[in-house]
Amino acid sequence: MAAHPQADLMHDYAYPLPMGVLCELLGVPLPDRDVFHHWVEARMSNDPARIMQSAPALLAYLRQLVDGKREAPGEDLLTDLVHASDEEGSLTPQELVSTTFLLLVAGHETTVNLIGNGTLALLQHPRQLDALRTDRSLMPAAIEELLRYEGPVNTASLRYTTEPVEIGGVLIPAHQAVAVALTSANRDDLQFPDPTRLDITRATTGHIAFGHGIHYCVGARLARMEAEIAFSALLDRFPDTRLACEADALSWHGTMFRGLRALPVHLTRAQP
Questions:
Q1: Cα gap 251→39, rounded to integer Å
Q2: How many Å apart are CA 229 and CA 17, to the nearest integer?
Q3: Rounded to whole angstroms, what are the CA distances from 202 to 47, 112, 153, 162, 198?
Q4: What angle do the packed helices 77-88 and 16-26 form, to 10 degrees?
Q5: Which residue has the higher pLDDT, 114 or 89?
Q6: Of 32, 66, 77, 254, which sees the most CB atoms within 10 A?
């Protein structure tokens, strides 16, 4: 990005980083990564034609990748899953492919949106951005607040009632689908005073951007690490980044996920 005065932070920064990390974790060979990225990006789009075209190719590639790790092990997470399955019989070949696919969905789009949503929130709150730029020890707390304030996931995966249950004075019958609105819970004023205000110094204990209990995101620590590296590098390299359009001109996408389609910014390189 340094070669240009302007960039789309989603396409040029937020998307490539998590994809690179996932490719390393899964042991995707370097020559395959461009087409692999194309398939995953198409799968995350809202274009049914692109999804229908890319999904079979992606699944076929994942099957080949799983078979390849069995024949030629590598130093990666997928090799560990394949051989743990072989030794203990805990995962079928189809379950291995499904687990790998889940890692892609859960580990890519969410982190992309965390970087994009968080950057936009900071650009819209210059005092918070200045505080973070000045004192990097605030970074871990800032990431938690960005997860709370503008989380990457709107709703958790669907739950189903096995019996009638009352929540907030509303009776939900048995055998009904229930969507847990994570972004709404994270703006609950009973939990967070003045919840619509971004405050990177606030106590964010209780936010559920990563879920809760036995469904807590197993990749939460990795996501936090990626976010800390991404935000720190952006502040170091381009300390005076600013929006290149009006905020109300930005377009959002997603139903379960919440993310920006693009984030055009002006860049200013740090002086050596």
A1: 22
A2: 10
A3: 39, 24, 21, 37, 9
A4: 40
A5: 114
A6: 66
Q: Residue 93's domain spans which residues?
A: 6-152+197-266
The model's pLDDT over 153-166, given as tens digits with 9 standing for 90+, comes to: 999 888 999 999 99
- C-alpha distances (whole Å) from 192 to each of 149, 211, 216 are 10, 17, 20
Q: Which residues partner with 259 through β-bridges? A: 253
Where b means 16+ CB within 10 Å and e means fewer, 155-181 reads: bbeeeeeeeeeeeeeeeeeeeeeeebe
In whole angstroms, give the CA distance from residue 229 to residue 223.
10
- Report the distance separating Cα 180 and Cα 2, nearest Å: 41
Tell me the pTM.
0.89
Does 157 map to a domain?
no
Which string of DSSP letters, residue by residue, matches 12-62? IIITHHHHHHHHHHHT--GGGHHHHHHHHHHHTSS-HHHHHHHHHHHHHHH
Is residue 261 one of the residues assigned to a domain?
yes
List pLDDT tens digits, range 183-220: 999 999 999 999 999 999 998 888 999 998 888 888 89
Domain with residue 258: its CATH number is: 1.10.630.10
In a domain, 220, yes or no: yes
Inside any domain, residue 178: no
Number of domains observed in the structure of the chain: 1
